[in-house]
Design brief:
Layout (H helix, E strand, L loop, with lengths): L14 E2 L42 E10 L2 E11 L5 E13 L5 E10 L5 E14 L2 E11 L5 E14 L2 E11 L5 E14 L2 E11 L5 E13 L5 E10 L5 E13 L5 E10 L8 E13 L4 E11 L5 E12 L1
Parallel strand pairs: 1-10, 2-18
Antiparallel strand pairs: 1-9, 2-3, 3-4, 4-5, 5-6, 6-7, 7-8, 8-9, 9-10, 10-11, 11-12, 12-13, 13-14, 14-15, 15-16, 16-17, 17-18
């Protein structure tokens, strides 16, 4: 049995960073249901491939990135195939990312999908704004979807505080959703504590929910570390513990990720998820999903990425359940 990590909710995440780690991270969107990561202040480096996985038939994605002054526009065009095997447009994602003074940003992402007859219509709009405040940033994420009238209505909101104290960064993230009456309520709260030393970063994250009496309840704890091995590969391993009804933490599984540079100038990332059986915890863990992504240059300003999802097959091996090809133009 694992002892719960005790975290102060007023100072929820401490990330000790060496100078090289303290640089502003590349832009990233908050994943409302995913693990915490610094948006404006750098914390963990590895990004899970799990968020990029979708189910269904193979897809092809074209990405075009255009920079004009302080604004970056990213257009993702997703293609599938119709019943006759012909290429057809199924989704577009357009991002507008504007840099603000002081290191903040103001971003909008619009997702449109093909409806009956092939006409595209917006199915979700996300906004994310990070503004400097004191020694850190306040980040607000919103998700809007079409309501009954067809107008966009806010369905989810996330507030993330990022604070710097010397070489430390404090993060506190709260997710809200409206109830049936339209009143906003807290769905969950995530806090994390990370330290970086001797080339290795260790992260402890706790996920809390609120019970019917509006009291915090520990749901999950994740203990992760990131490092580079002797061969120069970037590695990440996360141990996952779920809380039982009495609040005791039980080992639930782990996620491993390795990233290595290839001879053709590309990169290969392999992520493996293992889970323990709740009914038979003594039997160890089993692989439930493996994701492999390979990227390689496809010209002076183009990069080609192929992502493959593998899951257990009935004969005990692994079978490919989804593939995705992305070509990015800079």
């Amino acid at each position: 049995m694992r002892r719960p990590l005790v975290l102060l909710l007023l100072s929820c995440s401490v990330v000790s960073l060496v100078a090289a780690e303290a640089e502003k991270p590349a832009f990233r969107w908050i994943d409302p249901a995913g693990e915490t990561a610094g948006v404006s202040l750098a914390t963990r480096r590895a990004e899970s491939l799990e968020a990029a996985v979708v189910t269904g038939p193979p897809v092809e994605i074209e990405v075009r990135r255009e920079v004009s002054g302080a604004t970056t526009r990213v257009t993702r065009t997703v293609y599938g195939k119709d019943v006759n095997g012909r290429r057809r447009l199924v989704e577009t994602v357009v991002e507008e990312i504007g840099e603000l003074k002081g290191g903040g940003h103001d971003a909008t992402r619009t997702v449109s999908r093909a409806g009956p007859g092939g006409a595209m219509r917006a199915v979700e709009r996300q906004t994310q704004r990070a503004v400097p405040e004191g020694e850190g940033f306040e980040v607000t994420f919103r998700s809007l979807v079409p309501g009954v009238s067809g107008a966009m209505e806010e369905r989810e909101r996330v507030r993330q505080s990022e604070r710097r104290d010397g070489e430390a960064v404090e993060i506190d993230r709260v997710r809200y959703q409206p109830d049936l009456s339209g009143k906003w309520s807290v769905v969950e709260r995530r806090v994390s504590q990370s330290t970086a030393a001797e080339g290795e970063t260790r992260t402890d994250e706790a996920l809390y929910s609120y019970d019917v009496n509006n009291r915090l309840r520990l749901e999950r704890q994740v203990e992760a570390r990131e490092w580079k091995d002797s061969a120069g590969r970037s590695r990440m391993e996360a141990q996952i513990f779920n809380a039982d009804l009495e609040g005791r933490l039980r080992f639930a599984g782990r996620v491993r990720q390795s990233r290595r540079e290839l001879g053709d100038g590309g990169v290969e990332t392999v992520e493996t998820r293992e889970e323990a059986s709740p009914a038979a915890p003594g039997e160890g863990v089993r692989v439930v999903r493996r994701i492999v992504e390979r990227s390689a240059p496809a010209g002076a300003e183009r990069t080609r990425r192929v992502l493959e999802v593998q899951e257990p097959s009935p004969n005990g091996g692994m079978r490919v359940t989804h593939t995705r090809e992305t070509v990015e133009t800079r």
